[in-house]
Amino acid sequence: MGAAASCASESDPTAADAPLDAGATSSDAGVSGDVADTSAPAHVDAGRSDAGPTAVTCGEDKCVTSLVTVGYGEGFCAHYHDDTVLCWGENTKGQLGRGDETNNYGDGTPTRVVGVSNVVDLNHTCAVDRNGDTWCWGTGAFLRDETQPVTTEKTPVKLPLPPATKVMIESFYDHGVGCAVTQVGLLCWGSNLYGMLGQPAFGDDLHAPQPPRTIAMPNGAPIRALAMGHAAFALREDETLTSWGANPPLGRISSLFPDPKPKPIALSSVKDVDVQGDNACAVAEGIAYCWGTPPGNPYTGSALPLGRALPEPVPTPEPVVQIATATSTSNVDPRRGCAVSDKGNVYCWGDNANGQVGDGTKNYATSAVKVALPEPAAQVKTTSKTTCALLLSGKVMCWGDDGFGQLGAGTLRKPSLVPQEVVLP
């Protein structure tokens, strides 16, 4: 999903005055008696806003229209102006979709994924084309082997699904799950370890790969976007958010661990949602919210401490319209995040051991820090060690680690504490 922008970013990074009380890292409807009121308190630094994401305006051929992470590892993919897909960074699991053996570790040169064209939707290493066909590459639940939850595909494979408009694949350990918005409804398949197939997780169904199943969603508006980590989220056209799966990061009150029944989260006017593993973030009414498992308590399928179980506001200097999250290896706090404001400014917080906050230091960011960019941003995406921002002009800027070439600077392979431009073909 995108983000908004209007004014040029200031040149000097600044920090928010308020401390970050929600932590940080990595989409339906209505209200039910099974949810609690998690609306933001009256005092939130940024204030409320109903602004939504602003689309990229392409003025030249080298123009990216949307940006995603590869999902599994340190890398990024981009929806290019000609409706092809570019990927760069880690390639240990075929994430670049090139089918070659020469750069199986990683590549810093953005290159087109082979055999994928006419793309209308891109999420991690899966794309939907204009015909509604779903293509995936890398490692995930690609419905290739009835005995294996996940497979690795170095070139794109077509998934045996009805015509789709949205797709999302998530891999964790040796398990994987996928969901797609299709002509016959929302379908999910793969491992039911976290209850994301819409039914209780136990017995053979817990680990064995399952074929596509229809998920019984609450009545409501069509699904605009999907996000998946250890829980699944559906963001609808009426800007409501539904979740099911691991608890936490379910984001709502439930007695089930995990909870396989999709039910609404008590947030309204939701513009964006992102999840990575046990941690999730969303933007609602211009306010950034994050939630998930407490530090040092990875989800294991049973009940966990609920200190971060419900959405908590993350103070930001301005209202935000888009958000990204990631897990990290920090011993202080295993979460980090970034957001785009309604003016197109990018703010990051959390682990900064690799300079992924973008403020020119490696100091842990306890509050949202402004990133110095040459122009307003439309979108930000972050991995554990690296962050990239899509500017309104279609250019991409990245900062942080470059061990796999994830900064997109070609063969340079040099980390950067400040944003540098990705070299597009």
From TrEMBL:
Any GO molecular function: guanyl-nucleotide exchange factor activity
Lineage, top ranks: Bacteria, Pseudomonadati, Myxococcota, Polyangia, Polyangiales
PROSITE patterns named among the record's database cross-references: RCC1_3
PANTHER family assigned: REGULATOR OF CHROMOSOME CONDENSATION
Highest taxon above the source species: Bacteria
Pfam family, one: RCC1_2
InterPro entries: Ran_GTPase-activating, RCC1/BLIP-II, Reg_chr_condens
GO cellular component: cytoplasm
Region (Disordered): 1-51
Signal peptide span: none
Protein name: BNR repeat domain protein
